[in-house]
Description:
By secondary structure, the protein is α+β, with helices and mostly antiparallel strands. Helix content is 31%, strand content 31%. It is built from five helices and nine strands, in the order αββαβββαααββββ. Strand 8 and strand 9 (177-183) form a beta hairpin. The longest helix is centred in the first third of the chain and has 20 residues, at 44-63.
Amino acid sequence: LKRLIVGGMERVFEIGRVFRNEGLDTRHNPEFTLMELYQAYTDYYGMMDLTENMFRYVAQEVCGTTVIPYAEETIDLGKPFERLTMVDAVKKYSGVDWNEIHTLEEARAVAKEKGVEFEGRHKKGDILNLFFEEFAEEHLVQPTFVLDHPVEISPLTKKKPGNPDYVERFEFFMNGWEMANACSEINDP
């Protein structure tokens, strides 16, 4: 698909079965159906707009409404989707301000204090992601974009201008589940 974009097609997509050689748990299945799409001349903000409009449109067309009851929740796809950075999500749900964590040693210390398990190979950004998974994910019931992920967990993604510790990437969450993942493609040769 990326070759088609480079070759001049401005928008491409495909829907199909995929397999990822990853573990199986309550949040990840290694085999699933995926819609993958690329669009030239946009960034992750444009992809967030496309994702939001698509989810809203599909809900309206399939369900006849953008307010969807699911289990004990009511998901409202009609309102603008919340957008917050991973750092802000971690601060909101764990009380830890990652902007105050400057070193790997500080990240490890706060992880031990909060009971977040990490491995010796984990860098500061990896630990931030562990905090996000531990404290924030389950609270993202209403449609929410979590953006600006740490560079350590986002290879081949365009870095944030002025802050190379983070990248232009988002994950879209609803009902505590990751529903989509996108980024600004790296364009620095």
